[in-house]
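#struct-help
A.M.: can someone run this one for me? Single chain, 219 residues.
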Amino acid sequence: MSQPLMPKATAVWLVENTSLSFEQIAGFCQLHTLEIQGIADGEVAVGIRGMDPIASSQLTRAEIERCEKDSSKTLRFFQQEGLPQPSKRTKGPRYTPIAKRQDKPDGISWLVRHHPELTDNHVSKLIGTTKKTIQAIRDRSHWNISNIRPRDPVLLGLCKQVDLNLTIDKAIKEAEKAGRIIPKPEPIEEEEIVPTTPVEEVPEDPYEAFTRAFKKTDD
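D.P.: on it. Structure tokens below:
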């Protein structure tokens, strides 16, 4: 059930101008019955000016009178015909910080290579990307394919390990149920870590340097 505009102000008006029960007002305004009782006792919503739900086209006088006659009935919102209904917002792709968006192709490539059981739909929901991008990486037609390096999306911060594990389990179950053969994944190659600490040079002994120079002079 939808909540009216300014529910407390609406509740104040209904308490002051109707004989509706506390339960009816609480149900319409989606407030607790004790809050409505507090409004009637002057302990809650002190200073709030009542808002007429009839003037705002949320209720009709006939609907209020219908519920005043029978306390077991529930107030229903007034639906005006011909008005466009608000569209439901669908859940979009997962949000990724701008700083990490450039790492998405690497994460997609890693998932495609090491988890072939994942479909484009699974990868799209897990990382928050488009199926077109995933397909381009699969068939190596991506504009930047030469610079894409498969990297674990968990380490890149594109998704959580628990979400990845759940998605993999779900994908395997769906594949088994559909009788789809899952290709063998490529082995995960560990990157070789090259030490960057420079080797310290041992200074030459001055005596040996002098002896070598003196020998050169004699020759």
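A.M.: thanks! The chain is about 45% helix and 0% strand.
D.P.: also worth noting: Residues 161-178 form the longest helix (18 residues).
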